[in-house]
Amino acid sequence: MRSVLILLAGALAPHLGAQPVKPPMPGFDIAAMDTAADACDDFYRFACGTWLKQNPVPADEPRWGRFNELRDRNLFLLREILEEVSEPDDAGDAVQAMIGDYYAACMDEPAIEARGAAPLDTLLDAAAALKSKADLPAFLADLHRRRIAAFFRFGATEDFKDAAKIIADVDQGGLSLPDRDYYLKDDADAKKLLDKYVAHVAAMFRLAGADNAKEKAQVVLRMETALAEASMDRTARRNPDNVYHIKTLAELDALAGAFAWKAYFQASGAPAFDSLNVSSPGFFAGLDEQLAATGLDDLKTYLSWQIVRAAAPLLPKRFVDENFAFFGKALLGQKEQTPRWKRCVRRVDRHLGEALGQEYVRRHFPAEAKERMLELVHGLEAALAADIETLDWMTGETRQQALVKLKGISNKIGYPDEWRDYSGLVIERGDAFGNARRASAFEFARQLAKIGTQTDPDEWFMSPPTVNAYYNPLHNNINFPAGILQPPFFDMALDDAVNYGAIGAVIGHELTHGFDDQGRRFDAEGNLRDWWTAADAKAFEERAQCFVDQYAGYTAVGDTRLNGKLTLGENTADNGGLRIAYMALKERLKKNPAGKIDGFTPEQRLFLGWAQVWCQNMTDEFARMQVTSDPHAPGRFRVIGVVSNSPEFREAFGCGPNQAMAREESCRVW
Length: 670
Ligand SMILES: [Zn+2]
Prior knowledge:
The protein is of the alpha+beta class. It has two domains: 23-84 and 366-416 and 460-670, Collagenase (Catalytic Domain) (3-Layer(aba) Sandwich); 121-314, Neutral endopeptidase, domain 2, CATH 1.10.1380. It has 26 helices and eleven strands. The chain has helices at residues 43-54, 66-85, 94-107, 109-115, 118-128, 136-145, 181-184, 188-207, 213-230, 234-237, 249-255, 261-268, 281-293, 296-311, 317-332, 340-364, 367-390, 396-408, 432-449, 496-513, 534-552, 568-591, 602-613, 620-629, 635-643, 647-653; strands at residues 63-65, 152-159, 162-172, 246-248, 275-278, 410-414, 470-472, 477-481, 555-557, 560-561, 616-618. The chain has a four-stranded mixed sheet with strand order 2-3-5-4. Strands 6-8-7 form a three-stranded mixed sheet, with helices on one face. Strands 1-11 form a two-stranded antiparallel sheet. It is globular, with a radius of gyration of 26 Å. The relative contact order is 0.14. Bound molecules: zinc ion.
């Protein structure tokens, strides 16, 4: 397979369009509300109605919400940093030079056009040169090193039952679409999308210079569909028992002997090990059958597709455009390509997040923010402790254990104490493709080097500029990157009530994850261990089922309903999180009493603060993708799902018994 090198000198001069404008700081906004709506009939409309009308999804996005406003602003701030440090005469240090060179190379479209498909061809030629299936393990290890996602994933994980230890882990993978459902559903929408997918794969093969592109695309679809059939679905994967299977290498061979695992692990550069976690044994049995039954040519076709797909975003424009036509337009309903600078800033964040993050926190994360945040976290922890102590469905023994677990939760705020060391990673101007592959290889090696070592509780799994937060059940800690500690989540200029409803509820949400359907299975040390009495576990399950049924009743798009089981953990965390934020606010108000602001009581402002975080519009395609593959419910349901369970909300807004936001059968776990 060969592609033609096309020189387009001058045809693609650097984009001289308008410079991006700094987006305003988003924040809690009374004008975003629609007070013509009745808060007790539709609180989402009441809190977000005007914002929703004034903020349709921009053409270059699939979804637009308050999160996106903040992410957009962060991207702009990161761009400012990157534009500065990428100036050739910038006197920055080695870390700044690295992020500057990465960004400059990514933005250098003329250089990318000039190299054409040459970087791709090296890999495609290697795939074409495979002589027999015996060559597959070493080749696959090389692809995985470059983060090309063929067949399965290999990495490092905490041992669920001994979380202080890091072990090797193989997991299902190899799909190009976001979920197995995309291959297996047979409604008209799903079929139409698969047709577009096959046409896209063929178009990409043609761009890469392959012949028989149409037939090759059918091979890809057939093989990925078989992988999808063997894959465990997301709901089943929520149960940690389902994805924890320690096997010796001999047992892995017995499960999937058509593949030379030892040769693969050796070629990957992983340290030697005797046993590992096989997350999804059924998948590997299916993969084994597929590898045994598939001819070498078809295997090469599938591998070539994975190579082209992974490479496309950093190849010349014709590849980028075709990639967008499917993965942006058809799959997500995004009308226009995201501006290149945003794509490049995101890439730097993905590949060099803790290098870019150093300058970001220096400029944009004040020390006071960390102090105020710590205060909030302690308030929320105290509220959850009070909640656990007074729950009527939990008995003494389990309650004691729950409090031990809560006390054991540590918190990380802003950014790591010690920055990750990127030395040894080569980043070159003029080599966008090579930089991405080398950065992937660097990260793959970092992951594999952990195998056989002790867990590092100080490691971060999100970069500092990230607008998000997480609870890690295996480390039993909550993590809040600097990126989320800004308005509309966290606003030092605003009243406590709004802050408790926004970042307070986010803290409560992360803490509650330690006690959702998944988190409750792990103990204070992060080990998968059952610390529940049978009766308390049963009481939990019954209460959780109430959430499953409630959210499964919500329709996201067309006739597609939410998956109550897939979203259970997040919905439990939202409901518990806002409740303890309310409790913490009440404590705070005892010391710092507050009156009405803008005509709303502190209690009302707490609920408004929560709701306004979730104002969002999205394309139908995006909504379908979210319901299929995301454990988070769309914003509207994160608001009405929670407030309609809340007696405190009813009281705050004076809702009558028959109103939509006052559900008769309201659910509660925490
Ligand atoms: Zn969550």
